[in-house]
Amino acid sequence: MTESTAAQRRQPRSRPETLAKRRDILDAAVEIFGSKGFAGGTLQEIADQVGMTHAGILHHFGSKDQLLLEVLSHRDETDVADLEEQHIPGGMALFRHLVRTAFVNAHRAGIVQAYVVLSAESVTDDHPGRVFFQKRYETLRGEVARAFEVVCAERGVAAPDTIELASASILAVMDGLQVQWLLDPAAVDLGRASEFAIEAIVDSVLSPSPSPLA
Amino acid sequence: MTESTAAQRRQPRSRPETLAKRRDILDAAVEIFGSKGFAGGTLQEIADQVGMTHAGILHHFGSKDQLLLEVLSHRDETDVADLEEQHIPGGMALFRHLVRTAFVNAHRAGIVQAYVVLSAESVTDDHPGRVFFQKRYETLRGEVARAFEVVCAERGVAAPDTIELASASILAVMDGLQVQWLLDPAAVDLGRASEFAIEAIVDSVLSPSPSPLA
DNA sequence: GTTAACTTACTATCAAGTAAGTAAGTAACG
DNA sequence: CGTTACTTACTTACTTGATAGTAAGTTAAC
Questions:
Q1: Contact, B85 vs A89, CB < 8 A?
Q2: Would you give the DSSP letter of residue A63?
Q3: Are residues B60 and B112 in the same domain?
Q4: CB distance A211 to B96 below 8 Å
Q5: A107 and A195: one domain?
Q6: CATH (domain of A35)
Q7: Which of A22, A34, A136, A167 is the 20 to 30 A CA-CA neighbour of A50?
Q8: End position of a domain, from candidates B59, B76, B93
Q9: Closest chain A residue to B126 measured between Cα atoms?
Q10: CA nearest A81: which of A56, A55, A110, A58?
Q11: Which domain holds residue B113?
Q12: Nearest CB to B95: which of A179, A206, A213?
């Protein structure tokens, strides 16, 4: 009946404000999930912050899980720390970029907290963010490893097999320092500590010393 | 009336089995909070695991928050990683101990996960475990810093001002590697990566090199 | 016989998700 | 150009289900 006509009917574009509204919701969700965790934060709280009901949010995102996933991928636009989509500095510039990021992050406690909380929470059973963080770390480790290879090639050093260990370690130390810094900002200098550790690890790859623990 | 007599009445000691039961509950709580988080885990699940109702658990611990706090302090008996109460190896032995711990932890995913999840969750607003983890990191950083000082003294090196940064970094890298390892055990060698990073950081304190990033 | 160690049963609360309705926008068509 | 046809962007109201905590009762140890 109307079927055939309906099929070829125009697709009435979503309103332009809708995109802005979605961004607002995502921003609010980062804040709430960051400050309360995913399990602890509620749609109601997010809705309150954007002046809506929680049903309105479900209208946009379908479910709380889906909202989280979109929050995580949305971050690229917000989080300076991310390398994946940006033009990636190669070689030694990447390590400098990571250090700079740590210094910048020291002024962005909200976003840092969101990532700390959500990444750790993602290791729990059936967490909707788990796959996201698995891929994220895999990608980031790959980027760092490639930077190491480039640097080794530049210096004519044979790329040692410590590169994988070092790549994971650099990301790890940045994350771990964030936890300590969030718990007690006065006790840990996020920027300087990250700088120190990254330098130590890079140095250890480029000019391995005999183990001091032996 | 009976008040005065009751006051001096024997305090009918808790049954010997009670202690064992409490331990069972704490063990189950570690597992549940570890696998679901504190906000995500429920008293019901914990109760199921020890063959009780959730009210029985509240009888022993009073509240969910209190249970968490007891879980966290109970850990000393279970978690090999902890240094606070054990006789602490000093100087270089401490770093060796940390490395050994990392290798051991690679076979204790359950407990590792509990600490990763709970420590990160503790940075959220009004989390009952926050103070615990603040103190814990403060103590651990102190232990590591003291080990650095001892080692520096042994070698006749002036203790550099990088010790604080290094102490936080060593704990950070261990924690951060745990997250990556839990997300993808095949991709990260928890023991070897921890060893590598700790050696790099210790080495960097003992014999500082000019910054490779400069 | 008192108290610890529970259970059962209940309460209060709060969560995500659904259903149905409404107002306003947008396109198609005559 | 304006009516019609339909969609988006919500709201209100509800359902369903779970959760921490409480109160009162029961059993058995000491």
A1: no
A2: S
A3: no
A4: no
A5: yes
A6: 1.10.10.60
A7: A136
A8: B76
A9: A36
A10: A110
A11: 79-206
A12: A213
**Do A196 and B123 lie within an 8 Å CB cutoff?**
no
B9 within a domain of the structure (yes/no): no
Show residues of chain B in contact with A148, CB under 8 Å: none
Instruction: Clarify whether residues B69 and B93 are in a common domain.
Output: no
Across chain A, which has 214 residues, the per-10-residue mean pLDDT values are: 40 71 95 95 97 97 96 72 63 96 95 94 94 96 97 92 97 98 98 98 94 86
Residue A37 lies in a domain: yes
State pLDDT tens for residues B180-212: 999 999 999 999 999 999 999 999 999 999 988
Contact B196 A162 (CB under 8 A): yes
CA–CA distance, B188 with B177 (Å, rounded to integer): 8
Q: In the structure encoding, which two tokens stand for residue A54, read together?
A: 């929680």
The amino acid present at A149, given as its one-letter code, is: E
Residue B60 lies in a domain: yes
Q: Which of B119, B165, B176 sits opposite A196 (nearest CB)?
A: B165
Give me the number of domains chain B comprises: 2
Radius of gyration of chain A measured on its C-alpha atoms = 21
Tell the residue number behind the tokens 């750790």, with chain if given. Answer: A120
> What ipTM was assigned to the predicted interfaces of this complex?
0.90
- Check CB contact under 8 Å for B117 and A125: no
